[in-house]
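Query structure, 243 tokens:
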């Protein structure tokens, strides 16, 4: 699955959409990401009780929707009734394909359904492989779970995988993952900038999150980061001088 704009470094992915300006994971946030010139979209994926993959970060609905209930224990219709802005994976793919935006899809763990989210995701992506290839977008699957990444590598060997890291204690996961890409957070990267050289020496790409400060965007560009994931894609474009 090819990169739709291979000459731009770093590329800018909208973190849960342009979520500094609009509610995260909503159509409004992703439409704003398009308006702000993002090269791609990032999202989190969870399964509902009836195995519908939806864009949702937390295990519960409380922070995002202001109501009780867990995503895993509610059906899609129950979630939709409480929060009509919820997006399904298929709707998200439609949007990305229409506007030719790369995707970074994070599968959340731990979850009650264990590896089912990766299986459902693989089924959806494989069923739409022709559309994806025709569009030219790149789709990456990300996770903090080492096992999830290994399962994706087996089920979809041609897709880019991203091993997410949130601390230096995760060094072993970076060393032993088969993922083609490493995804450290910006704080970790700034604490140990030599990590960039180590990753690149191993032939790994770098997707960095969540890069919202202008000086951190510049830092990533200077260090050769491949993708910055930000809540503020318009600011990142301006800082980097992209037209």
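Result returned for the query:
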């Amino acid at each position: 699955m090819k990169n739709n704009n291979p000459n731009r470094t770093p590329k800018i992915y909208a973190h849960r959409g342009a979520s500094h300006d609009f509610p995260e994971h909503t159509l409004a946030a992703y439409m704003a990401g398009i308006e702000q010139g993002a090269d791609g979209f990032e999202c989190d994926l969870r399964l509902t009780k009836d195995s519908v993959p939806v864009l949702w970060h937390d295990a519960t609905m409380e922070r995002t929707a202001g109501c009780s209930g867990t995503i895993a224990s509610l059906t899609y219709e129950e979630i939709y009734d409480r929060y009509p802005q919820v997006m399904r994976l298929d709707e998200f793919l439609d949007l990305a394909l229409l506007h030719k935006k790369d995707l970074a899809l994070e599968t959340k763990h731990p979850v009650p359904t264990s590896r089912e989210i990766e299986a459902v995701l693989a089924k959806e992506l494989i069923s739409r492989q022709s559309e994806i290839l025709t569009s030219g977008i790149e789709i990456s699957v990300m996770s903090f779970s080492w096992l999830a990444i290994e399962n994706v590598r087996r089920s979809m060997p041609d897709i880019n995988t991203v091993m997410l890291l949130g601390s230096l204690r995760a060094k072993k996961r970076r060393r032993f993952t088969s993922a083609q890409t490493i995804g450290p957070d910006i704080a970790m990267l700034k604490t140990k900038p030599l990590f960039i050289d180590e990753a690149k020496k191993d032939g790994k790409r770098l997707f960095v999150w969540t890069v919202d400060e202008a000086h951190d965007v510049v830092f990533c560009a200077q260090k050769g980061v491949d993708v910055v994931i930000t809540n503020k894609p318009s600011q990142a474009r301006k800082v980097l001088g992209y037209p």
